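Late entry, evening session. Most of the bench is empty. Finally got around to the prediction I had been postponing all week. Sequence below, unchanged from the version circulated by S.P.
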Amino acid sequence: MLREISTAEKEQLHSIPELEIQARWFGGEFGRQFTSTDGEPVEIVQFGHWNHGAGPDFTETAVKVGDEIRRGSIEIDLSVDSWEGHGHGSNPGFNNVVLHVFLQGLKDGEGRFFTRSEDHQSIPQVQIDLQQLADSKPVPLTIPEARLGRCATPLADMREDDVASLLVAAAQFRLQQKLQRLQKIAETHDSEQALFQSLAEALGFRHNKVPMAVLTQRFPLAMLKKESSSKREALLFGAAGFIDFEKLEESEDPDSKAYVKELWEEWWKMRSEFEPETDRALQWKLAATRPTNHPQRRLGALAGLLDSWSAFAKTALDFESNDWDVRSRKLLAAVDHSFWKTNYTLKSKPSAKPLVLIGKDRVRDILGNILFPMAVAASPVKSWKKYAELPAVDSNESLRRAMLRLFGNDLVRRKQFSSKYFEQQALLQIYKDFCLEDASECANCPFPEQLAQWG
């Protein structure tokens, strides 16, 4: 049962930032053992990672409810009904939440709030003991977003050469995995379609890679190559659900109106054949997306790439050439589009300066994650040497977490073993194979013991 909250506690509650509650939770201040609002025992087996972006507060967690281990995310709210107030109940991004933690229940006489996901699944609830919160001391808000792993100790004692050889092995394994996926797509279709779909996924970034891939499956490269530039662009934007002429007429920018009108004049003639049903509409994620990475703009970059596809594909798949990678990089960096080089969305006003459609980090990711796996299969030794020289890209959330798990606060080693692109990929592979597969807060992870035998 939800206990009654005193007036003094309520006043205290309103003065405590939610960020501080998250920090105290992640620091283990409230412990691991709880009882759910349904009376079931709840144990936090793995606190996971502190998510500072959009979505649930903590990801990759493991929670034992009764006798069942549930893996997913944890959301913390000041009030139990904030779940609906913040729109989590209608957000598919919260469907993997396995525990809803809150401080304040409903007022007396208002009944009980049940936490449910967008797909109508009931989510266990835990109420934090406010008295425990009142008696505790404030904690710093600079707690790392990931906890130090058990593997950090053997890694710290390993010779530099052994760590380096470990990362080479992990990077080569990752290349093979990426190659196998590309080969499966190529076997079903052909190498150009595999390249096209993979490029679309890369342009979609992490949040929108799936809808971008689905578009390339609904409109394969062989089909799009037969159409004019304007028609294939209308197909992509129309099937993506981005051409709503009545709403887009609201745009105050004349160039945006003109561009949408061009798309609409092509799309309305094909709409009945290619517009997906409501239940098959693509789900785009817009939250926490930089303006330059808005999915409309990413689709514009794909359209620009299609305009120069023949030259790009010929160069990118010519692995026998000594400078295929240099020429491919230049072609990707040069992708252009008259509208999207100055606009963020279909309704936005143009930017004051031209915008690059495919930035240098995205170009490097396309080379490292798509083209080099293909190249290594064709020419292993020569291509690996080139791949190993690729410089690092800017750090992302997964890479930061991987380095925190493996190296902790050892800034020297973190910098030393992430200066090359292949090293970053190796760290991500170790993180994926061990950290994300573990649901025991490192206790049962085999990686620390394997490290003791390495070299």
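Two things to note before I forget:
The CA atoms of residues 36 and 126 lie 5 Å apart.
The beta strands are 33-35, 41-46, 49-50, 58-65, 68-79, 97-104, 125-127.
Will write this up properly tomorrow.
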